[in-house]
Design a protein that fits this description.
Layout lengths: L1 H7 L4 H33 L7 H15 L8
Helix pairs in contact: 1-2
């Protein structure tokens, strides 16, 4: 079936498959970016007005530490 679809688009099957994967990754990236933007807007709406920029930055860094996987810079 994939080969038939590739032929219909006049593309080699491997290039057609790469195109499908690329589009899916682009769509997922766009959806993730939109979701993050909405979440950041929500978070900003929950911040007390007297909170300083430094406090917000510290809170963001702390939150990122909890969600980022541990990193190892050794090969």
């Amino acid at each position: 079936m994939l080969e038939a679809q590739a032929r219909a688009t006049r593309m080699p099957a491997d290039r057609y498959l790469a195109h499908i994967v690329e589009r899916a990754l682009e769509r997922q990236h766009r959806q993730n970016a939109e979701s993050l933007g909405k979440h950041l807007d929500y978070m900003a709406s929950q911040v007390a007005p007297e909170t300083t920029a430094e406090e917000m930055e510290a809170a963001l860094q702390e939150a990122l530490q909890h969600v980022r996987p541990p990193r190892s810079w050794r090969p």
